[in-house]
Amino acid sequence: MIITVATVLAGLLGLGIIFIGVNAIRAPRVVAGFGIPHTPTEDPTMRSWLYVKAVRDIATGLFLFLLMIAATPQLLGGYLLVAALIPIGDALIVLHSKGPKAAAYGVHGATAAVMVVVGVLLLVG
After folding, report:
1. What pTM was computed for the model?
2. Which of 42, 47, 48, 92 has its Cα between 20 and 30 A from that of 28?
3. CB of 115 within 8 A of CB of 84?
4. Where exactly are the transmembrane stretches of this chain (predicted)?
């Protein structure tokens, strides 16, 4: 693995999404709904869906680290570009649910933008 600014940023993205996933399991009320209003965390069915999201987040971050270690920067960049669809989809879900635009654009949109920029840097680097 060649350490560049782009790979460090990719690692930070991986750590961030793992952190969010672990916290969703540890304290679902804190990260509940990721911007969707009125998420009833005390409802067992909703809590199960939050755990599904948490596992997805942890696996996504771990997969990023696997690619950092075992793949080319171009493959890592391609993964980040495709994976940017996740926060884009999350932003659209928040907007459709009449959630706060700050969460849709400021959290999910910004995450997608960083992922795209880092992905492009890895592809051309």
Report:
1. 0.88
2. 92
3. yes
4. 102-124
CB burial of 55-86 (b: ≥16 within 10 Å; e: otherwise) equals eebbebbeebeebbeeeebeebbbbbbebbeb
Max alpha carbon distance in the chain (Å)?
47
Between CA 4 and CA 10 the distance in angstroms is 10
Give the helix/strand (H/E) hosting 104: none
pLDDT of residue 33: 63
Within 10 angstroms of residue 92's Cβ, the number of other Cβ atoms is 13
Distances (CA, A) of 80 to 26, 54, 66, 100, 113: 26, 19, 13, 25, 10
DSSP state of 93: H
Q: What is the mean pLDDT of residues 77-104?
A: 94
How much is the pLDDT for 30?
A: 72
- Residue holding tokens 């649910």? 97
Domain count across the chain = 1
